[in-house]
Amino acid sequence: MAKPQKFNHGRAPVFPTKQWTTEEPLSEQFALLDLGAFMGQDLDGTIRLWSPGCERLYGWAAKDAIGQVSHELLKTVFPVSRASIVATLERNGSWIGEVRHRRRDGAELIVAVHKALRRDEDGQCSGVIEVIVDVTAQRRAELALLESEARFQTYFDNSADCLFHVRAEAGDRFVYEAINAAGLAHIGLTAEQVRGRTPEEVLGPLVGGEITAKLRQVFETGKPYRDEPTFNCGSGTITYDGIFLPLRNEAGQITGVLGSARDISEHRRLEALLRQAQKMDALGQLAGGVAHDFNNLLGGMLSGLELLEDHVSSDEGKALIAACFRTVGRGRALTGRLLAFSRQQPMILQPIDINALVEEVAEMLVRTLGGSVRIEKHLAPDLGQIVADRNQIELALLNLALNARDAMPSGGDLILETRNETVAEPQDNGLAPGQYVAIAVIDTGEGMAPEVLTRAIDPFFSTKGPDKGTGLGLSMVFGLVRQLGGGLKIASEPDVGTCVTLYLPRAEMAGSSIMPSTF
Fold first, then answer.
1. Alpha-carbon span 94 to 85, nearest angstrom
2. Quick check: 20 and 48 in contact, CB under 8 A?
3. Distance between CA atoms of 70 and 53, rounded to whole angstroms?
4. Which parts of 195-264 fold into alpha helices (H)?
5. Distance between CA atoms of 113 and 93, rounded to whole angstroms?
6. H helix or E strand, kind and range, residue 510
7. Where are the beta strands (DSSP E) in 75-207?
8. Residue 496 has what DSSP assignment?
9. What is the 3-state secondary structure (H, E, C) of 354-421?
10. Which of 227, 281, 288, 283 is nearest to 259 (CA)?
């Protein structure tokens, strides 16, 4: 009869038997616990006992496994050397760890192993009892979770969008749990300055309060929230595409919110430019059709006047006919402007000395504007040339000067300024990077309010009375400079004045810029 188990001075229990095959109580234990995977082996790894649980786990029957060396049969991959494991067994009486085994069909298993040293009645090492638990599915699930978390963390850390995680605290308080590098760059803070603080503490009561209201809505409704808020910051106005997603625990309770914010300011700016281009293109087609029809009518009127002139002898009649000729001439000038605006009238492109042209326009304006308007000229001596239609540029400057005069009913200063200018980055008005000649027309008149300034180049928009303007002046100037590959910029302030600047490509780059471009 076997003796009771010995505990060997606090070490793991050992089995006091001399022979594996004749130990009846041990065999009975294996029979009772055949659902588990148990293995008995010598210190060199030779298998002496192979439970039914091992048969099911590995695929080898006991008759095929007994006598084999376990680490050779199962192609064991140890976390440390086998010699180190044997040394630990001899020293402590047990070893616990995880190893990799191969089933008979070649499938790999990850098993948790508890090895207990077996001693004979004299206390000598006679073998090892090994309890085996298959943890393959658990470890693979853990690995998949770790890989998933690693992928998410990589995306979170390196995304160009602002990403953040907010958790809820007691008292309806929301605090930042994490924020990525892009988000920190946008707000100019470090992770330590953000983590654990509320949106109001990080972004101020106005912006932070808006974010908190959206977070509260997600927690209350359990639904994602999307918005495009616009904020004013030091660098200007920024529009974000913001998304707030609820995060739930295993019980389905919302524990936090994952948020993202993408800067779409440039996208919205380009959309606005596209809408403006489409509107101007549609108007150009309309203006071209009207101008052609009107020009045909003027042609008929002109022919009639020429015939009538031969039959009128009185001075009064000739004066009336001369007045009609002047009116028809102004009508033809208007149709020319409409055709140029619609790009249906070819431009005569030639190199232009802008300073010389401005001098000529200034002399004309002295007679046209009257003595209440003082004209100043600030012309850059090293100004580059442009390639354009001289008549159209002259007409554009006259148009701007007349607008300036109308903005100064009590008189004031009109300044004509030229300079070379380099544009380094794309501008909000569609101006591309490059070298330009800038022509500025500045007045000290009434100026424009912000809401008027945003519509200044819209066709048919005018602040003048119904009998004092068509609202086509600035839109035509804008169409002209865009056709030449340039741009227009307007700065204005009520009771201070207005500055309209034309940007025209310098002659050395005009070869590619003079081609018609979309308004």
1. 9
2. yes
3. 15
4. 199-203, 205-221
5. 14
6. helix 510-513
7. 94-102, 108-119, 125-134, 162-169, 173-179
8. T
9. HHHHHHHHHHHHHHHHCCCEEEEEEECCCCCCEEEEHHHHHHHHHHHHHHHHHCCCCCEEEEEEEEEE
10. 227
Residue 162, beta-bridge partner list: 261
The pTM of the whole model exceeds 0.85? no
The answer to whether residues 99 and 92 touch, using CB atoms and an 8 Å cutoff, is: no
The DSSP secondary-structure symbol of 508 reads: G
Name the one residue in this structure whose structure tokens are 């953040």: 164
Instruction: Report yes or no: 354 and 377 within 8 Å, Cβ to Cβ.
Output: no
User: How many CA atoms, within 13 angstroms, populate the side-chain half-sphere of residue 310?
Assistant: 4
Question: How far is Cα 504 from Cα 489, in angstroms, rounded to an integer?
Answer: 12
Q: Give the C-alpha separation, 179 to 317, whole Å.
A: 85
If we measure between CA atoms, which residue out of 3, 8, 1 comes closest to residue 121? 3
Q: Per the structure block, which two tokens stand in for 472?
A: 């086509």
Where on the phi/psi map is residue 207: left (φ > 0), alpha (ψ -120 to 50), or beta? Answer: alpha
First-to-last CA distance in the chain?
105
Q: Give bridge partners of residue 419 from the DSSP assignment.
A: 438
Cα–Cα distances (Å) from 217 to 151, 223, 229, 431, in that order, read: 29, 8, 16, 42
* CA-atom Rg of the chain in angstroms: 45
Cα angle at 244 between 238 and 247, to 5 degrees?
Answer: 150
Distance CA 160, CA 207 (A): 21
Closest C-alpha among 312, 382, 333, 321 to residue 354 = 382
Token duo for residue 469: 């303007």
pLDDT along the chain (519 residues), means of 10: 36 40 50 71 91 92 93 94 90 92 94 89 82 91 83 79 84 84 83 87 84 87 84 67 85 85 78 69 65 74 80 81 79 66 65 90 80 89 88 83 86 92 80 90 88 68 46 68 84 90 78 37
Residue whose structure tokens are 């100004």: 383
